[in-house]
Amino acid sequence: MFFVLVITVVFVVISVYFFFRAETLQRKLMTQQRESLATRKENKVLVESTTLLAMRGQEFAKARLQRLKEHAKTSENEQLIMHIDLISPLVNNYSLIFRECMKGKGRLKAISQKCFENQDSSAYKKFVALIVTSDKKLKRYWSSNNLNGFLFLVDALLTIEDKSMLASKPNSTHICKDNTFIG
């Protein structure tokens, strides 16, 4: 009889222990679920913000490219027109390349190649030749093969470094301190 009583007491103590342990685990689980929901909401907001930044960056880059195109046509500068034609696929697919680069390092060249080949099969090779024959900054940006390099690369390609490209009509050009054409 004593033995049965001891086993019953042990069983009750173990049951009470597991009951309180289950309650503690349930509270932790609920806390984790709330944190997970908050993290998902925050992640969604960050993704939307990043998408918005990519779209705005593309709008600005396209506007700068359009201003350069207009200037090149009015000045009839063939070198500038060729430069603009070479960089157009990169600028026109800015947000796509931006998103791919956000996924990780090593995606800039692959996604850029796809974007250029959608326009022309030899366009990518011509673009890479432009980069290789350009100054060290462009080579460094391109070889970084990441988002930061892409952002600097687009900015550098849309910035007129070579003032001889603008020499055809000096009276119609206005250059800011950062060498960008403002019309």
Structural commentary:
- With about 180 residues, the protein is mostly helical.
- It has one domain.
- Helices cover about 75% and strands about 0% of the residues.
- It contains seven helices and no strands.
- The C terminus is likely disordered.
- Gross morphology: rod-shaped
Rounded mean pLDDT is 84
Low-confidence stretches: 161-183
Number of discrete domains: 1
How is the biggest beta sheet arranged? none
Gist?
The protein has 183 residues and is mainly alpha-helical. The protein has helices at 2-75, 78-92, 94-102, 108-119, 123-132, 136-144, 147-157.
What descriptive keywords fit this protein?
mainly alpha; 183 residues; 7 helices; single chain; disordered C terminus
SSE diagram, text form:
Elements: H1 2-75, H2 78-92, H3 94-102, H4 108-119, H5 123-132, H6 136-144, H7 147-157
Helix pairs in contact: 1-2, 1-3, 3-4, 6-7
